[in-house]
Amino acid sequence: MAQLTLKNLGKSFDGTDVIADLSLDVADGELVCLLGPSGSGKSTVLRMVGGFETPERGAILIDGEDVTEVPPEKRPTGMVFQSHALWSHMTVADNVAFGLKLRRLPKAEIRRKVTEALDLVGLGDFGNRRVWQLSGGQQQRVAIARALVLEPKILLLDEPFASLDQHLRERLREELRDIQRRLGITTLFVTHGQDEALALADRIVVLRGGEIEQAASPDRMYRAPETRFVAGFIGSMNFLACDMRGGRADHPLFPVAAVVPDGPVELAIRPEALTVSPGRSAGMSARVHRKTDYGTHLLLDIVLEDGARVKAMCPPSGAFEAGQEVRLTASQVALFRDEVKLAEVRTEAREVAHV
Amino acid sequence: MTIAETSLATANPVASRKTRRPDWIGGLLAVLLGIVVVVPLIVVAIWAFAEVWRYPSLLPQEWGLRFWTATLSRPDVWTAMSLSIRLSLVVTALSALICLPAAYAFARMDFPAKNVLFLSFLASHAFPKFGLLVAIAGIFLNLGLISTFWGVVLIQLVGTLMMMIWIPVAAFQNVDRAMEEAARDAGAGPIRVFWSVSLPQAAPTIFAAVLLSFVGTFYETEGAWLIGAPEIRTMPVLMITYINNQIVVQYGAVLSVLLWIPSFVALMFTRRLVGSSSFAKGFGV
Amino acid sequence: MTDLSSTGPVRTGGTARRNGRGLTGLLLVSVPVALLGWLIIYPIFNAIGRTILRTDGTGPGFSLDTYVRFFSDGYSLANLWLTLWVTAVCAALLLAICLPLSLYLRFAKSRVAAVVQGLSLFPMFVPSVILAYALIRTIGPNGGVDLVLNALGLPKINSPYLTPWGPIIGLVWDNIPLTTLMLVAGLGAVSDNAVEAARDAGARPWAVLRHIILPQIGNAVLVVLSFTVLSIFSAFTLPYVLGPASPEMMGPFMQRTFGQVMDTRMAVTQAVITFAICAVFGAFYVRSIARNRKNGR
């Protein structure tokens, strides 16, 4: 269907750069999630693609055609807003039909397309309802139908499920994914929820301060974060500061070996990469501070002798109590220095052999 | 079923205790206000249907509609009525025509000196109104606008400006910007967005503002009296001459009841707007 | 594809378009602004100009003769004093009536509160002409109140009709809705939680009013006072119909000078004097609006 290219986009508000220099290619039929904390510029990027903001530098191309200067009403994009932005003075069907009427389509065709679009989001019988008679989830479905009925080349979604409760959000997320797959529509999705991005995206683009921090598949993003920011932003991560000396970290618990220049580093370890067993560690004592039972797993909050805290995940069968002394081993450790990843070490084999 | 019953039973005493506690202060205020506000109007209503009411009888000696026919057969009443209606219609239409686009601009567009200009509309309350009218009358005298229809139109138009700017501005500002953007996204140009989304969304509030302006113009006495006299005699001006000349008490009463009808309609439709805090905010609180 | 490097030309389209929109905006507001300028701002300066500049005889010259005449004329001064007195009494009465009323409306949650609100808004929908007529019939000589008193065997009231108390009653009646509304809006700044926290700390209702509520609505009260003064000081209809013929309030006085005495210059002089007296309140009012708008944004 369509390809979206952002080339060296730049935008500032009141003299401060919101987007410095951003380039991104979205392939035909791909669903890309723009993920970032508030103020990272993710919505600005989306609004520039939709035509609601004009970039000061760079260009936006859809299927190779420069649309940077094209006003929103002439762009082949369809947008779903966070506040659903349905027109409350029209019926559901009129909302969906509005854009078609502007295009002066024959009445019968409008009716057919509206029915199709509403069927697509599972609201086939709701055409005559007023907007306020719908639930929040239904309203957002109508907004999706309204954006899709015009058959845009690019679908844009600006935190569309942010105002819904967790349960509904997860369901709509799956429905949206199904619809997007079925239509094969190129989609840009803005969210600040990492779980949403991980669940939806073909590719996640993490933004920070208006720049792309990392763009990768959900799987790579979680397992191989390339910067300290991404490592900390996606999922939970333990960071332990220490020094590298002669190719070995001087942390008493995790003396990992890596070919890294000497100097301060941070060891990054996922909670699930830690194995906890009763007993005493060699270099440094570690005690369970608190145990939280999540049903599927236990989350242990562990205090190290030097005051550092780490979180560790272990099977629900694990018998640990607060105050108990434990031994920690890590199966995978990443090393960061000044935001940049230096090395990734898998220690599984060594530890298994050790035990 | 049983669960529902038990929960109702437990919820009941709490709820009833709350509603049963009498609101003495409220009751007292309601009675006092009721007497002060309603009694004068009841007296007028009784006079309108009294044919003979001599002191010291508590109620009229004879009731009837004789004075309604008498009042309504007076040609000056009909002239004043049609003049007042024409005047109010012209003023309200002109006011809507020039103020609604301006209100939209104030609410949604960016232009130089916007804040100062908007503030100057709100600040137009900061001048004693009748003094201002006299100053304007001094200018109109030189322009030959005194005692003309269009002179009164102008003076009353100024009176509606403030309400017709700031209520619609608030209404337009309350329209979700994303709604307008969604319309742009669907292919509507800026004018189409205004017509199909912004205006209908703001319509209930704007309608109330238009109604208030119409009624306000209909009852406007001071400008009409000062600028319009002696040629332009609107209903309120006629009413004042009736009061002054004390011809027949019932004429005034019948006119009062008649004149109050538009106000009653306005009361029905605009009470929600007037009671809202955003309305009071326009006066600077 | 064209090469677009980040150091390429900065797009000026955005700002140019904004300028274009700026002109459209100015164009849209131009008619009301022009009207405002012509019929509110200009008349004020014109009034000052025409009363201090002499155009008769030997070309323009500076003269304060009408002002001298006003301030040396006992009747004019009596009118001015009457107006000031009526305004002060009305403002005091309005605060005394509307402050309790608005406190009640702000904090009451019963169904009676809706009735009280409706009743206190009601006078806004009674035009002042009708009000004037109704008051004459009710508290005028042999009016409704006299009828009731007589039926109860009590003496008649000393009718306020055609005394300064006539316009006072009328003006207070007429201004109750707006004053109450503005005070209620001002009381919106006091959060329920602030009051509940104070009561929780052991404050009795009177202490809550004195230490929590009043300090927070001081500014609102001042705005309401200025607004009331501005609208009452130059009231016309009610003083004209209900008030005494001599001395009279400034509104009817100006009207008579303009319409019957046909002394435009003197009438405008009187208007300028009312502007001057109200200027303090007007300035305070404008400042408060400006500050509220800045805070609102």
Question: What fold name goes in the CATH topology slot of chain C?
Answer: MetI-like fold
Principal-axes shape call of chain A? elongated
Determine the CATH superfamily of chain C: MetI-like
Number of domains of chain C: 1
Strand content of chain A: 25-35%
Number of distinct helices of chain A? 9
In the sheet with the most strands of chain C, the strands line up as 1-2
Task: Calculate the terminal CA-CA distance of chain A, rounded to whole Å.
Answer: 55 Å
Short account of what is shown:
By secondary structure, chain B is mainly alpha-helical. Chain B has helices at 2-20, 24-48, 66-72, 75-108, 114-122, 129-143, 149-174, 177-185, 190-219, 222-228, 235-245, 249-275, 277-281, and strands at residues 50-52, 62-63. A two-stranded antiparallel ribbon of chain B has the order 1-2.
Please, could you describe this protein's structure?
The complex is a heterotrimer of chains A (355), B (285) and C (297). With 355 residues, chain A is α+β, with helices and mostly antiparallel strands. Chain A is built from nine helices and 20 strands. Chain A has a six-stranded mixed beta sheet with strand order 6-7-8-3-9-10, with helices on both faces. In chain B, strands 1-2 form a two-stranded antiparallel sheet. The longest helix of chain B has 34 residues, at 75-108. Chain C contains twelve helices and two strands. Chain C has helices at 13-52, 65-72, 74-107, 111-121, 128-139, 144-151, 165-187, 192-200, 205-233, 237-242, 250-259, 264-296, and strands spanning 53-54, 61-62. In chain C, strands 1-2 form a two-stranded antiparallel sheet. Chain C is globular, with a radius of gyration of 26 Å. Residues 1-9 and 12-19 of chain C have low confidence and may be disordered. Chains in contact: A-B, A-C, B-C. Chain A binds chain C through residues 7-8, 10, 21, 54-59, 61, 64, 66, 68-69, and chain C through 1-2, 4-6, 8, 10-11, 13-14, 17. Chain B: It comes from Pseudooceanicola marinus. Chain B: Keywords: Cell inner membrane, Cell membrane, Membrane, Transmembrane, Transmembrane helix, Transport.
